Amino acid sequence: MVTLYNTLLLIDGYNIIGNWTSLQLTRDRHGLEPARRELVEALVNYAAHSGYQAQVVFDSQYRKTPSSLEKHSPNLSIHFTAWAQTADTYIEKVCASFFHKTSFTPPRLIVATSDRDQRLTVIGYGAEWMSAQHLADEINLSTHQVRRKQRPSKRSQGRFLFNCLDAESQARLAQWQEGTN
Question: Which contacts (CB < 8 Å, 24+ apart) does range 67-73 have?
């Protein structure tokens, strides 16, 4: 089944890590790899809950490696830029193709970064901008909503197991008790 996404969310990975206090602490204590993992874990559920096709972009400008794209989940991928390419230049190229409406661009493009120059460029290309703090707030809200949905809607009416069963199971148990199965 092919899923069409109406929104592409591009996340400037290292910019977000540098702007979220929790990720800064992880980076400073344990290094970039654990901070990247923590960011990706936060984004997996958010991307699925929001319905966005999200892509985290990390610089590889100091490593002589080709660019790579890793599919982390159906809604989230991770892009490492090529040698000598920054996340900013990659994001700008995506925004430019969005501006020129190439066939692969979604109807809506959001870029998450707190880089002021990047924000101006993104908006200039007609894409939307989201600050690192706003992304953090959105993720927290999404997490809260998912947890609230997962809570049982009603408490047990008593301390007996029978009261914890769904209606169909209660009916079957009642039939067994009566001997009419």
Answer: 72/40, 72/44, 73/44, 73/47, 73/48
User: Model pTM?
Assistant: 0.73
Structure tokens given for 69:
């794209």
Q: Note the pLDDT tens digit of each residue in 111-150.
A: 999 999 999 999 999 899 999 999 999 999 988 888 887 7
- Contact yes or no for 55/106 (Cβ under 8 A): no
Q: Residue 9 and residue 26: Cα distance in Å, rounded?
A: 24
Long-range contacts of 65-68 (CB under 8 A, 24+ apart): none
CB atoms inside a 10 Å sphere around CB 162: 13
For the chain, domains (ranges, CATH) are 7-150 (3.40.50), 155-181 (no CATH)
